[in-house]
Amino acid sequence: MKPIRAAALAAVCATLSACSAAPPAAPSGPAAPTKDPVEGTYRGSSTRFQADSRACPHPGLVEIVVWDGRFQYRWDRQTYVDAVIGPDDAITGSGPGISLLGRRNGPRIDGDITNGICGLHFTLRKQGS
Length: 129
Hints:
Elements: H1 2-20, E1 40-51, E2 61-66, E3 70-74, E4 80-85, E5 90-95, E6 98-105, E7 108-114, E8 118-126
Antiparallel strand pairs: 1-2, 1-8, 3-4, 4-5, 5-6, 6-7, 7-8
């Protein structure tokens, strides 16, 4: 009778210690993403989506330097469009009769620039990212 009693007592003790054991730590969620700083050099290219005049700017390679959330986009030889990247990563800009709209998504910037007659779409990637 003693072996049965000892086995029962051992089973009860094992059950009680399993209940009193600390639960496993909850898995930690993904780390909060750190927002990539906006400042830096971005390079990419532009493509035409509108050309109702022979005087429209040519698409091609594009490079901008963002400083303090601001940059200038070169429309043609003489015209630069001032643009701002907002805290929500929306990009807005304007120049003489020209508007620029876009969005920053991490190391990438996509946007459109147009004067109503000519239009370019650009895609840029932050260098070093």
